[in-house]
Amino acid sequence: MGQPLVSSCCRCYSLRSGSIATGVLGILLSIISIILIFTVRIDFKTILMDWLPQNVVKIIYALNLVMTILISLLMIMGVMKKNHFFMMPWVVLGLMLAIGLLISVIYNAVVYFIDGYVLGGTLWIVVGLLSVVIYVYLWIVVYSYFVTLKNENDRGRYSKQPYRR
C-alpha cells in the first residue's frame, strides 16, 4: 500500500493518538452542530436542491452528522483494536468530505462576493480555507495510521511460517 504520509501528529503525538483525537473531535463537532441546527434560527440552503423546505434540509444535515458520529466511532474502534478495516469508511468518507468542504467554501465565498458582501466573502475564504487545511491534515494523520496498520497486518499475515508436521 505504500508508506504513511506523516510519521506523527503535530510532530509531538503518535499517529494513534492523533487518530483518536480526530475521531473524538469529529464526534464533538457533530453533536454541537446537531444541537445548533435545531436551536438556532438559520436559513440552511443546499447548492443543488434549494427548493427543499427548511425542515427537510435540517433533517438531511442532522442525518449526515449522525452518520459522521457512527463512522467516527467505528474509526476509533479500529484504532483501539488495531483493525484497519474499521478505519476504512472514515478514510474514504473523509476524503470525499474534504473535497465537498472545499467546494462549499469556494461556492459560499463566490455567492457573498456576487451579492456585494466583500467582507463576508473574504471571511469565508480565509476561515474556510484554514478549515480545509486543518481537516486535510487530520485526514492525512488518520490515513497514515491506517496505512501503518495495514502494512503491519499484511506483514504479520505473510511473514509467519506455515505449520508443518
From TrEMBL:
Annotated InterPro entries: DUF4728 (IPR031720), MARVEL_domain_protein_3 (IPR053077)
Protein's organism: Anopheles coluzzii
Presence of the UniProt keyword Membrane in the record: yes
Entries under PANTHER family matching the protein: GEO08273P1-RELATED
Keyword set includes Membrane: yes
Entry keywords, A to Z: Membrane, Transmembrane, Transmembrane helix
Protein name: MARVEL domain-containing protein
Membrane spanning residue stretches: 20-39, 59-78, 90-110, 122-147
